[in-house]
Amino acid sequence: MPRTDVCSTNRAFSSEPPSLSKAGRRAMAQPRGWARRHFRAFCKGFFVAVPVAVTFLDSVACVARVEGASMQPSLNPGGSQSSDVVLLNHWRVRNLHVRRGDVVSLVSPRNPGQKIIKRVIALEGDVVRTMGHKRRYVQIPPGHMWVEGDHRGHSFDSNSFGPVSLGLLHAHATHILWPPQRWQRLESVLPPERLVVQSAEE
After folding, report:
1. From residue 87, how far is each of 117, 139, 171, 186 by CA, in Å?
2. What pLDDT does 9 receive?
3. CA-to-CA distance for 5 and 57, rounded, in angstroms?
4. What are the residues whose beta carbons fall under 8 Å from the beta carbon of 168, sequence distance 6 or more?
5. Does residue 162 come out as left (phi exceeding 0), alpha (psi in the -120 to 50 range) or beta?
6. Could you read off the pLDDT of 183-194 as tens digits, one per residue?
7. Active-site residue among 14, 21, 22, 70?
8. Most confident segment among 30-39, 128-137, 140-149
9. Average pLDDT score over residue span 133-162
């Protein structure tokens, strides 16, 4: 008798009226259809937004953390205790145009996989007095610039590897964004002792 009761109960459950079964299936399909539509919309938005974001980072601007002491005291004045985060403006150097005093990021001439941040000291045609270079005075060749770190004697820069091709320019560092108490604009100024001996504009 117990087996009969179980079987009859199963038959009653499986023999639900057809109209109710279809309605139940429609009710279950509605949430699934809603989720599917929203998932498709999310995917479309995601695949549109990601290329835009990548294009922005590649062509317009990005942020980067500065490491090392070569730009002290302008950057990382606290040494290893903290690192400045700077805004790098790619758009400003799209035509390879820089000014003396600009703080720029560039591809290292010695290590193409590394970016370095330095100050532009001289431009093509300028004559610069070097500090530790094999030649006392260097005239910057066309399409090149002379870059140095603000921390004299603690910077791997043009005094070691010479004039740098403008083609290695990566971005112009315009602002310190972090830490908050360090927020400021990075001015394009030359230290008085690093003025060029002869400017190409003279």
Report:
1. 12, 31, 9, 10
2. 35
3. 70
4. 106, 107, 109
5. left
6. 999 999 998 888
7. 70
8. 140-149
9. 93
Q: Note the pLDDT of residue 81.
A: 74
Task: Tell me if residue 22 is catalytic.
Answer: no
Active site residue 15: no
Give the DSSP letter string of the chain: -HHHHHHHHHHHHHT--HHHHHHHHHHHHHHHHHHHHHHHHHHHHHHHHHHHHHHHHHHTEEEEE--SSTTTTTS-TTGGG---EEEEESGGGTT----TT-EEEEE-SS-TT-EEEEEEEEETT-EEE-SS-SSSEEEPPTTEEEEE-SSTTS--SHHHH-SEEGGGEEEEEEEEEESGGG-EE------GGG--SB-TT-
Tell me the mean pLDDT in the region 88-103: 91
Identity of the residue numbered 134:
K
Instruction: Give the phi and the psi of residue 113 in degrees, each rounded to 5.
Output: -90, 5
The tokens for 194 are 């690093």
Catalytic, out of 74, 105, 118, 155: 118
Summarised one tens digit per residue, pLDDT across range 148-164 is 999 988 889 999 999 99
